[in-house]
Amino acid sequence: MTEIKGEHDMGKLDQKVAIVTGGSTGIGRNIAMEFAKEGAKVVIGSRNVPNLEKAVEEIKALGGHCVGVPTDVSVAEQVRNLAQQTVNNFGRIDILVNNAGICHSATLLEMSEEYWDEVLDVNLKGVFLCTQAAARYMVKQKYGKIINISSNSGRGGGLDDYANYCVSKAGVIQLTKSSAFELGPYGINVNAIAPGAIMTDMDKRYMTPEQYKQYKEGRKAMAVLGRIGSTQDIANLALFLASDDSSFICGETIAIDGGRYDRM
User: Fold this and answer.
1) In the chain, how long is the greatest CA-to-CA distance?
2) What are the catalytic residues?
3) If exposure means fewest CB atoms within 10 Å of the residue's CB, which of 13, 21, 222, 242 is most exposed?
4) How many C-beta atoms lie closer than 10 Å to residue 67's C-beta?
5) What is the mean pLDDT of the segment spanning 248-257?
6) How many Cα atoms are found within 13 Å in the side-chain-facing hemisphere of 253?
7) Is this structure's pTM higher than 0.90?
8) What is the DSSP letter of 8?
């Protein structure tokens, strides 16, 4: 694994302070690692404390600056604490990646109110709460980068048995536009990433091995590049949006799906 850049090496995120929610595993962990490699001081928020501690130690072992804050993004008080702990440790908030997300599968007719509420609370309300908390600091700085992790499932078509998830991710896309409209005048870039099929542990948790195999083969066949995406693919795009290379991009949702035949 690549070591963190030294003080005499130039990174794309030198001296920046970044929060990554859901940053202890999967896409979020890879984003946090990539940001740290490029010189950012990283704060990871996660409900999974053991995984959170492991991710923080991995970044520190490579010479990076990293703090973990146990956080349920659906709880306003915990989100405010995440922002406050970031400022207490590093003095500012430059970048926010709203990555925390969950799935609960059920058909529309069988879905419980609990399943609906929990997914919307984490995947959509959590983005709102974290954006609001971080933007309060970014507005004062007249600078900030907010990156929301949506999904191709929120762009149309959807998934069988995942109405709650698809709706939450569609909401993230619209919240991205609304946030960009209000925060852009303060020098804050707000954009979203809409991944297609990405190999993560979350997918495996909700499928049998045979279902996961069929899922991967089906998704490969739907992409012009003929492969499943990796968490590194998403981290690379997140790094671009977090850096000043993307300074004139705002309010956009960028699909990263290998070129889906049904979405082109």
Assistant:
1) 59
2) 165
3) 222
4) 18
5) 97
6) 24
7) yes
8) T
